[in-house]
Design goal:
With 80 residues, this protein is mainly beta. It is built from no helices and two strands.
Length: 80
């Protein structure tokens, strides 16, 4: 996929592993995954997916402050 020598980390995979910091409080979260394909002159291709995850740990961190509401996440004026 893409140009010679390029690799998509999720190509031909049915799972993606990632670390969740120990400080993250237990609770339900929505993980947003996206790929942007910049290979077409006609415009960017967007590939989105989401996963509901439940974190269960003894994290005592504070609630995240750098979060967004899904409807407000993207604005047609800021996406190239």
């Amino acid at each position: 996929m893409g140009q010679s020598g390029e690799n998509w980390l999720s190509f031909n995979k049915n799972r993606i592993d990632f670390a969740i910091p120990n400080e993250v409080p237990s609770g339900q979260y929505l993980v947003h995954i996206e790929h942007l394909a910049l290979r077409r002159p006609s415009g960017t291709e967007f590939y989105f997916s989401c996963a509901h995850v439940e974190v269960q740990n003894s994290g005592k961190g504070q609630e995240a402050t750098d979060v967004v509401k899904i409807p407000d996440m993207y604005d047609s004026k800021t996406i190239a």
